[in-house]
Amino acid sequence: MTPGGADSERRARRLLAWYPRSWRSRYAEEFCAQLECEFDERPRSIRRTLNIAWSGTLARASAVGLAGTTCDSADQQRWSLAWLAASLAAFLAMGLAVWSQLVVGWQWSSPRTAGTTLGTIAMSVAVLALAVLGVCAIAPIAAAVVVQLVRGSARRRLALPAAATSVAVALLIIGARHFENGWPGTGGHHWALQGLVPGGVAAFVWAATLAVSSYWAHPGALQSFPAPEVAWMAASPIAMAVLALGATTTLRRVELSERQLRLELRLGQLASVAMTVFLFGAIAWLSDSSPRPRSIPSNLFHVGAIDISAVVVMALALVCAYQAVSRGIGAITSRSA
Amino acid sequence: MASRADSKAAPAPLGSLGRYAGPATLIMSSLAGGAKHGYALTKDIEAMAGVRLAPGTLYEALARLEGQGLIEALQSDDRRRPYRLTGAGATALREHLGAQRQVANEGLRRLDAGWAPT
């Protein structure tokens, strides 16, 4: 092989890395041969590189059920559920952090402006709906996981992700319970009844999402926090990531009947609606420009850069959830057709 | 031997390929003239339609067409693998081009009948 040929092959192999393994195992050799011919004719082309990067990214999205038609319909439904769970996890991590500061604020005073009041109520209704849908969705999956673990039919595939999910949930509950009690601003104070939600719930969610904080950008202020609280702020996102990864892996590996898959995707459709309501509530709060009465402390219901970032992440997660649900429902339709 | 796609009752319409319908039509039209590998397809399409398909687009469309059974890869000792149109692909291409011809004929008829610059 000529030095130029070796260089062309190296460049082709580098570009091939944009594609997923499954695609490479089928097309690698001929695609490299194609690229080497292209290099001979046009040695450099930014348009060609961008085209390959874009196509490779699409092929990767297709391989995990987010685009194209690579998956069969049962696989597509499973991938859709996994993506829905991942999107919901990202949405809730941000959304609950935003919501908890509003309902914690409401423990001290009602907002008294229309946008914040309606926004917080809309978000609270959506949280309640998501909690009910979550129970309906998780119960049959948890039962299927337990049955398959006990029977041993899928023990090797399910044991690790199911254990990781359970440990992460336990850590988040224990940690949030501990830190909710350590903060005097929520939970159990004598005005608890004036809140939109019980003070304990507000405090628990606040403590669970403590890591979503603008204090990360202010290390000086962070240093004044008690060490265990900073440790919790660092550890809880790891627990959340393990929870999301464990749950999505479990969803992809657990055997679910077609009826169960349908039910889960229909619940996912309803969850997307609840997420949309939640997002509109958050936007209503962010865009509330009415002047607040002086009797309300300025730090309550205050909009910060972290909240705007959280809403952007929520919007992206919602788009991802809609895409996952519509592709999953499409797979159901094509399967029954 | 009948290919996997030949046994299907109705071929998938090219419109179902979404934004790849254009490249797919060009690829299948090129393969209607005989089996070709990727680079030969690129050159033939460039000569036939004045369009150069970028390699990412070409292989994305090839993968989708192959997935739908409209084309199939042939065995080759070379790294470059040739593709050919399947029976289902030929039927789908004929229907697609026929529909396009109808649109083209109607558009031309209307232009000839009454269009005038304002």
What is the rounded distance between the termini of chain B?
A: 59 Å
Overall number of structural domains of chain A: 2
The class by helix and strand makeup of chain B works out as: mainly alpha
N-to-C span of chain A = 53 Å
The low-confidence runs of chain B, each spanning 5 or more residues with pLDDT under 50, are: 1-9
Largest protein interface, residues of each chain? A-B, 25 and 18 residues
Kindly describe this structure.
The complex is a heterodimer of chains A (337) and B (118). Chain A is built from eleven helices and no strands. Chain A has helices at 3-16, 21-41, 46-63, 73-108, 114-151, 155-181, 199-208, 219-223, 227-253, 258-286, 305-336. Chain A is globular and about 75 Å long. The mean pLDDT of chain A is 86. Chain B has one domain: Arc Repressor Mutant, subunit A (Orthogonal Bundle), CATH 1.10.10.10. In chain B, strands 1-2 form a two-stranded antiparallel sheet. The longest helix of chain B is centred in the C-terminal third of the chain and has 28 residues, at 87-114. The model of chain B is unreliable at 1-9 (pLDDT under 50). Classes of the chains: A mainly alpha (337), B mainly alpha (118). At the A-B interface, helix 2 and helix 3 of A face helix 2 and helix 3 of B.
